[in-house]
TrEMBL record, chains A, B:
The keyword Oxidoreductase applies. InterPro entries: Mal/L-sulf/L-lact_DH-like_ah (IPR043144), Mal/L-sulf/L-lact_DH-like_NADP (IPR043143), Mal/L-sulfo/L-lacto_DH-like_sf (IPR036111), Malate/L-lactate_DH-like (IPR003767). Its EC number is 1.-.-.-. It holds the Pfam family Ldh_2. Keywords: Oxidoreductase. Signal peptide: none annotated. GO terms for molecular function: oxidoreductase activity. It comes from Drosophila ananassae. This is Uncharacterized protein, isoform C. Belongs to the LDH2/MDH2 oxidoreductase family. It comes from the Eukaryota.
Amino acid sequence: MFYQIRRNMSAAPKLVAVAESRRFMIDCFKAVKVPQAYAEDQADLLVGADYRGHFSHGMNRLEMYINDLAINATDGAATPKILKETPSTAWVDGQNGLGAVVGNFCMDLAIKKAKTVGVGWVCAKGSNHYGMAGWYPMRAMKQGLVGVSMTNTSPLMAPTRAKEAALGTNPLAVGANATNGDRFLLDMATTAVAVGKIEIQRRKGAKLPDGWAQDPDGNNTNDAELGFSTGCLYPLGGSELTSGYKGYGLGAMVDVFSGVMSGANYSTKVRKWTHAGADTAADLGQVFIAVDPNCFAPGFEERMTDFNGRLRNTTPTDPSNPVLLAGDKESHGMNSVDEAGGIQYLENQIKTCCMLAEKLNIKPLQFID
Amino acid sequence: MFYQIRRNMSAAPKLVAVAESRRFMIDCFKAVKVPQAYAEDQADLLVGADYRGHFSHGMNRLEMYINDLAINATDGAATPKILKETPSTAWVDGQNGLGAVVGNFCMDLAIKKAKTVGVGWVCAKGSNHYGMAGWYPMRAMKQGLVGVSMTNTSPLMAPTRAKEAALGTNPLAVGANATNGDRFLLDMATTAVAVGKIEIQRRKGAKLPDGWAQDPDGNNTNDAELGFSTGCLYPLGGSELTSGYKGYGLGAMVDVFSGVMSGANYSTKVRKWTHAGADTAADLGQVFIAVDPNCFAPGFEERMTDFNGRLRNTTPTDPSNPVLLAGDKESHGMNSVDEAGGIQYLENQIKTCCMLAEKLNIKPLQFID
């Protein structure tokens, strides 16, 4: 949710090895009684987001998860349970477990079904914030499958023509392999922008572009402070004139597939967002789909490579600004971390880690010398 | 594609009964050797679009289909063929048949599979323009299922940062029943707007809003004439600043699921759009998905009713402009036709019908007295 701004620091940046970031987060989770395997699931997801440059969905969220676990708003030891099954579907109760634990469980089930009958479609209720939506399709892609995941979230999007929020940022993610490690990996919120982008403008004292956020009367606002405090984001597409009702429709679609279908909370039934941790179970709904492309035309990955190339090689408007494919930014993020030899966290993030280490009595986060 | 403007006509409007519009279109198709059942499939789709107020996708397209059939660019007698099957999937060759024939065949197959194993996922290659994307989910909804369909189309959308088109308007449609005939029915192109909306501005001599269309250099244009002639629509979301890359990602996702997965044409391999009919087979790709909501939490339709109400009842910005749900505009369109007692076509459309009746030697379109 809350984006981090990388400031120019006078001192040399403190880098954290990917393995050390993971170790630290596992230790944090274990300190609030999360079993080893589940702590690893959750830490892999968070460090995976940082590695890909999605800092908002990485260690940035650690404190929130720890808070939720500490007050038992999330049950870190809970194991998801299958409530109903058919050859291609399953209905799962996440039992208020950690988002990554529920998500991995459901996607693994979907993968198993896809390998047997071609498609696996698994809906979970009783889940929690599941992090980067693209994490779960990647799990299916490792098995040569096409993966999809969607989740509902706390209300932050105003339906077109409305002045109050009734849907979340409700992301969807879709991933498909091409050859030689290339792939298509879409991971997007169905709002025009994430709250974090508004926060960045606010910190900069800059105006918001049209189509990002509404004021309390339901009109477009360019005032970042007002946009942030109102908490009514425009759906993808912005105003009605620029087809914001399509983004609103997509956000609703995500909620139908994740919240309504699973019997979880949905729309305004979902609790309000809080960075500090909530005192009630979130009962979020999610859906995980795996499809075996070999059930259709042979040569899928070869065609994906050609498809990706056609998009990336479209003539750019500005030759210094190449055309990207969904997922390319994340690949660049990973390359940057690999080149630097570690993840560069913000000073504020590092302070939070120091505080957490002390509070939870674990080994502090170590830096690369 | 081409929107129709309802002008104020001095004479009383000429109304056409829904059944008569259907009769006329069936006769047209039969005149170019389409078998009765397939002529009905295609006419039902077109009159269904007109009935719902989607005039661009209704009888407006008749001439294009007839042209394609007359020169055998589409094979009106072709029967789709299953190439490969699993319990939850099928790969179909549309054999260059009419879009509605291929679409109905595939969705019926998906429905059958969903009823057996929970999900049916059917991909077709060798298809043609399949009309209103929402038509196929409606078929699944009649069976108590949730339906999805997507199709690729001729290149008209420029990827973010590009100055040439590499994806079509690539629509997706999703439908789910609520109780008492209410439902959620999303049917949207993944471009910001359809070409027809640009044509309307052009006819009016009005400017285009930002985020609709590009000029030949890849920049935003407000010049409707230039936007129309360039044929590079912005994806949903508009420019990069307003997250147009999400709409671009969605358009690509539709092509992955419809074109790439089915082994049909995709991206720039799809033939250029022509209203007059083309001289090569389109080989479009499509996907049809049916899901049985009873495989998940019981009471799906009751929750959909509550969900729909929560969205429609959000406080409106302008109380005279109520908040709508995806599909509400189409319901209003049907009510208008029912109240008027028939469909009011444009004068130009009626002229085209006269011309077609003469050319094909069939009974002209009749009006309500």
